[in-house]
Every structure is written in C-alpha cells, then in structure tokens.
Amino acid sequence: MHSIVIIIGSGPAAHTAAIYLSRAELSPTLYEGMLANGIAAGGQLTTTTDVENYPGFPQGIGGTELMDAMRAQSERFGTKIISETIEKVDFSSRPFKLWPEYVDEGSFVTADAVIIATGASARRLGLKGEDRYWQNGISACAVCDGAVPIFRKKPLVVIGGGDSAAEEAMFLAKYGSRVTVLVRKGALRASRTMASRLLAHPKVEVKFHTVAEEVVGEEQENGLMTGLRIKNVETGKEELMEANGLFYAVGHDPATQMFKGVIDMDEENYILTKPGTSYTNVEGVFAAGDVQDKRYRQAITSAGSGCIAALEAEKWLSEREGENSAEVLEKEREKEKGAEKPVNGEAPEYRQNPLL
Ligand code: FAD
Ligand code: NDP
Fold first, then answer.
1. What would the CATH number be for the domain defined by 2-122+252-321?
2. For labeling, which of 88, 100, 136, 169 is most exposed (least CB within 10 Å)?
3. In 3-state terms, what secondary structure has residue 82?
4. Rounded distance from Cα 34 to ligand 2 centre (Å)
5. Annotated catalytic residue 307
6. Per CATH, the architecture of 130-248 is what?
7. DSSP letter assigned to residue 30
8. Does residue 17 carry a pLDDT above 70?
C-alpha cells in the first residue's frame, strides 16, 4: 500500500498533522500504534485525567476525551487511521518503506513523505506505592497538574536535579505550602542560573544525597498520598516526610529506537530538527511533538509542531511534484526529439502542422 504521507504516532502532534494534511487532500495514513511505547493510542494524554491548560476548554477536558476528539477530527477529513505500530523503517531511498508490526519482511508499506510523531514517555522510579498513588498525588508533569486543588497550600516534593526539576519546583512553590527537591547526588545538574534561583527560593528546600523509597497515603480506593519515606544515601538515615504531592522530573525517553542511525538525534535520543522547523536530516522525513522537544513537552506545543510538520511536508511534496512534472516534461521532449532525429541518415518525417 502506498500513501503520499504516513504519520507515525497518535498524540496531539500526529493528529494535528493529520487534520492539516487531510484538509489539504493529501489523504494521509496515520499509524496510531497498538500500545506502542507502552502507551495506548492517543498518547500520553490518555494517561491523565483533566487537562486544564489546553485552550478552548474553560472547564478543562479529560485527556482521553481530548484525544478521542482529535482522532474524530482527523477521520472527519479523510485520514486513514491504522491501529498498528510501525516497527521498522527504511529511509535510504524514496518512496520510503515502513514495516507495521506482525507483517513479514516483504509486506512493507510505502510513502513519499513521513512525519514522525512518536512522542516520549516520562521516566518513573518504580517506588513502592507508586502505582497506587499515580495521579492521586504523584505526577510526571508539574506544569500540567500543579495547580489542581489537592496540591494547594500542601507540602510538595520534586525528585530530580536538572532544569526541569528546578523549573517545576519554582512553579509548584506558587501553589504548595513548601517544596522539597530531592537530589540523589551532591550537586544539581541544572544550569547555573536555574540552580542559583532554586537554591535562593524562600519556599524551596533542596535535600542533596537523598532518594525516595516509598509513597504512603490513604488506604481507601483512590486515596491520596500523604507522605514519602526518604533516605540520605550518605548517612543511611531514613525519615517519613509529610507530602501531598510528588513530582518526577527525572527525564523522559523519546520513542526513537527504530530511527537510530537513520535520523540524527542528540545525546538523549531526541530527534534533531532544523531549528524552528520540522525538517530532519533526511529529506522528506519530518518530526513533530515531544519526540523532538525536550524543553516544553506540552500538548499545545506538540499540536503546534504537528501543524508545522504538515505545512512543511505539504510544501515539500508540492515542490517535488513540480520537479517531477519538470522531469516528466523533459523526458517527453527527449522522446519527441528522438522521433525527429534522422535514423540511418534519413530525413525525419515531416509532420504538417494541422493548424496551418
Ligand atoms: P505522545 O502524546 O507522546 O503520543 C505519541 C504516541 O504515538 C505514543 O504514545 C504511541 O501511542 C504512539 N506511537 C509511538 N510509537 C509508535 C510507533 N512506532 N508506531 C505507531 N504509533 C506509535 N500536556 C499539557 O499540555 N497539559 C496537560 O495537562 C498534560 N498532562 C499530562 C499528564 C501526564 C500524566 C503526562 C505523561 C503528560 C501530560 N502532558 C500534558 C504532556 C502531553 O501529554 C505531551 O506533551 C503530549 O502528549 C505530546 O504529544 P505528542 O504528539 O508528541 O505524542
Ligand atoms: P535531565 O536529564 O537534565 O535531568 C534529570 C535529573 O533527574 C538529573 O538530576 C538526574 O540525576 C535525575 N535522575 C535521573 N534518574 C533518577 C533517579 N532514578 N533517581 C533520582 N534522580 C534521578 O532532565 P531534564 O528534564 O531536567 O532536562 C532535559 C533537558 O531539557 C536538559 O537539556 C535541560 O537543560 C532542558 N531543559 C531546560 C529548561 C530551561 O532551560 N529552563 C527547562 C527544562 C528542561 P543525576 O544528575 O544524578 O543524573
């Protein structure tokens, strides 16, 4: 099966690209994945409850509900959605080849252009009690969840020592009664400016050489977390601290495994795009969303970059179509010339212009 454009992924970036491309009558095919990267089709937002910062929904909207609506909008304009995971790609020549999961080596699909929107997943720590209180106090996105009432005027904890941890702790300090940052080593990894702002913040305490061991909380179903057992790795001292919110800022893993060696990536395996665009190092392959953005990682920024990828893919395809037509015309002309060339020295047959 051949498509003009194949989109790999199913989050806000993929569906925004699909909406734009299908409205441009490019009939995109979108592979939404079957629990790809351990996440249901629809992407990271399917793992959360209310999304309160996506414009257009003043009362907030459920993450899954938002993604269902995006999917329906993609379909409405003619996107073909296939519930399979793409497992392997060959971008060495065009048309590009892609292998959906469970197909044999010969059953690949092809596309003139590809948009990679496979997203990322927030790293978890696997603490005791983590599954039980996930989204009931534990979150991997302070900017997304920090403002909800359960965290207001409550003691909150951030784990991590990078720029995200610093940024999130200072963001949370607006809502919580105090914020404790747990850093496993003796130093922050965050940039010097962020680190000094964090350390000087009146509502933030940074505990170095400290790791979390267990999340504790209310016993009933959907009970909230109330505390965190922590340990100083230097002294071995353990304590149970009061905490009503726990925010992981220990990095993300972009879903880029199958593009290794094919698409240029940074040291953390995020796809490198030409700044301000969705262009990758392979002409005709574009990237959008969290897979190429370790800085903002929001639904709206992913959707925005999906739009950019669609517009750039459309432009690239139309320019190529132009090139193709030029090539085809050139070949036609060559043929005509060939027909007019004398064969074995004979004069070409003179064709009278019927209009004369
Ligand atoms: P993702 O949402 O990461 O989706 C990509 C999906 O593509 C994957 O999940 C998978 O289903 C599919 N896929 C992956 N590989 C393949 C493959 N090989 N073949 C086919 N399909 C594949 N942002 C906000 O703006 N507001 C919020 O309130 C908010 N809350 C959040 C809460 C949580 C718990 C989390 C984890 C994130 C939250 N975010 C929020 C961040 C937001 O979800 C992400 O920034 C956004 O979803 C990224 O979109 P994306 O299009 O890049 O891809
Ligand atoms: P980073 O990878 O930079 O930092 C992750 C942090 O989590 C590190 O301090 C790391 O500790 C810690 N960590 C990892 N695993 C564990 C674990 N199992 N237990 C405890 N701690 C752990 O990720 P970020 O998300 O902070 O940043 C990603 C990129 O985005 C960076 O390039 C950053 O500069 C950029 N960014 C920039 C911002 C800005 O400029 N304002 C804001 C946000 C991100 P350790 O140091 O010991 O390895």
1. 3.50.50.60
2. 88
3. strand
4. 29
5. no
6. 3-Layer(bba) Sandwich (3.50)
7. E
8. yes
